[in-house]
Amino acid sequence: MIALDPHSETILQEYQEQLPRFLEAETRISKNLRDYLSEAGVWVAAVESRVKTEASLVGKLELKGAKYDSLADITDILGLRVITFYPDDVDKVASAIERLYEVDWEDSVDKRKLLDIDSFGYLSLHYVCHIPDMPYRMEIQMRTLLQHAWANMYHDTGYKSGVEIPRKYIRNLNRLAGMLELADEQFSQIRLELTDYRRRMQTLVASGKLDDAQIDGATFKSYLELDPFGPLNHHIAALNQAEIQEVPLMPYLAVFKEFGCKTLGDVDRIIKEYFEGAYQIACYQMGLTDLDIIASSVGPQNLCIAYILKSGGGKAGIRKLFDMLNGPSESNGIMAELLVKQTKDLSFMNQ
To answer: Which of 6, 67, 163, 244 lies 20 to 30 Å (CA to CA) from residue 255?
Structure first.
């Protein structure tokens, strides 16, 4: 056991007395920070926390105990780390922390301003904040996932081992650091470009320029918000004065892409061209029933069936449709065969 001087022993005793409060604060603050970031829409990779162990504190006091007047001067008894996916999210996290806690700006440091070639893994933003309801402070570190991975790797392969590393290995580590820093920047740039793309596509959809909107997850979602299948569904529902139950329609994205649709304009043309065929199929299916609830998928499904039948896809095409929408099943083949028989005499098939 390391023998501390009386002053350091006093600080250690204060730590031992306050340890339950630090542990409670760790749990509370970690949860509050996670909840706040989630509510703010800031998606992070992890929120880590720890209370300094007694052994770690003893080692610190042995080295520089005279530097501290009391336990309150040691800012890292409670430490948290927020790991983000993107560099620009670090500033979002920082903004959240500034709202939640009182920041000690004098002891906080932005290590992202370092320019050394080997500083990548340490380009963190460090805030020292006051712990609510306690006369102590805590450290909150913010950095990206790649910075975090690099720091851990460098720590394990570098000074932690206690063995001096030959310069050629240091050079290779620094080269890798440059690659990771570039990757961090590129991930952020790609995200910005994708966000801009989605906004442009949403604008095209909202303005009705569907032929200019490539069909993908983002554009199809925006298209569904316009309720393009609504008129057909309401027309079908009127057969029995049925109620329409909304169900997810995103699975039809893969179907329309399978049909060769390149833009939302292609989907819109299918709706217009096969509207009557889809309605005739619904009439046949519902004509002798008293069904009073239909799913919002009835319209697009019948559109797809009409398209397949008119395009010569027959039983195999309809079965593939059902396999895509419902998962492969032998019953899909039975339903497909029945549909081919039921629809062969409908007027749209002979037009």
So the answer is: 244
